[in-house]
Amino acid sequence: MKLNRNIAILVLLAAMLSGAGLMFLYQKAGDETTVSSSARLSKAKARHTPGRSAAKASKKQKAQAKSEFLVVGDGGTRARLLAEAADEERSLTPEMASIVASLQSCLDDEDRKTLTKICDKIARIRRERGEEAVPAMVREKAVETIGYFLPGSLAEILPFLADPNPDVAEAAADQFDDVLNDASIGDRELSSIIVMMANVIDNEDTIDSMMMSIDCNMRNSVKVSTCNQILENGTKTIVKQLRETIADILEVEVDELPADNKALQKKLNDWLKENPDDEDDEALYKGVEDDE
Questions:
Q1: N or C: which end of the chain has fewer CB within 10 A?
Q2: Average pLDDT score over residue span 254-270
Q3: Mean pLDDT of the chain
Q4: Which residue from 101, 162, 106, 95 is spatially nearest to 133, judged by alpha carbons?
Q5: What's the whole-number mean pLDDT along residues 193-205?
Q6: Nearest Cα to 139, choosing from 181, 114, 111, 167?
Q7: Rounded distance between C-alpha atoms, residue 133 and residue 141, angstroms
Q8: Which one-letter DSSP state was computed for residue 279?
Q9: Ordered DSSP codes for 144-185
Q10: Burial of 267 from C-beta contacts in 10 A (0-12 / 13-18 / 19+)
Q11: How far apart, in whole angstroms, are the C-alpha atoms of residue 225 and residue 208?
Q12: Per the confidence metrics, is the pTM higher than 0.70?
């Protein structure tokens, strides 16, 4: 009887060990499958960078997201947002309510020309009656609509980057940040945008994004050309920040840079001679073609 009991115990132990081994192998296989799937997903994402059409569709969805949530949202959050939106809308004058409706129509109909006229009207009202004559809610709606048409609507977004209301200014900065990271925009077009904005921008967060874009999203020749143009025409705030970016490019400390901008431009040009563009940079930095 003892022998039989010992045999039974050994059989039971063998079964337990076998089961644990199978579980280990199954879990390891599952982990490998997960890693493999993640790797495939990362590669797929790297291969597919959305073009300008996809980016515009995404912006339109974001711009419409608030109003859509008011329709399909649930529970207390939806009720609160509906109440807040109703209160804001009731507080608008007929003139301001009309502007909001027109902005929504521009977005729905993709009407760029009418948007320009509305933005001109908003600017004129603020100039003649004061900054707050157009409520923050209306200004935010304008920023959302303008964002859909970027980078073509850069002139319209500019006034809102310096808006006294922090929510409006942040919304405008976010829209501009999307432009700086839009894969469909080539580095030469990006350079033109940054150089143009450098003449007027003093918002430090926006400038940080611009500096990052110069450092990371441009081939060396375009990078140097952009820096040289900003040194000549940029605002004091952006030129000061640019010197830090140039120090990173040249791999030196900021206090090692020449104080004179002309001397600094020469130093950049000398660096470019030693670090010319690579043969494949044109393909790498030209921007992703439209996927329509």
A1: N
A2: 96
A3: 78
A4: 95
A5: 85
A6: 167
A7: 15
A8: T
A9: HHHHHTTTTTHHHHHHHHT-SSHHHHHHHHHHHHHHHT-TTS
A10: middle
A11: 19
A12: no
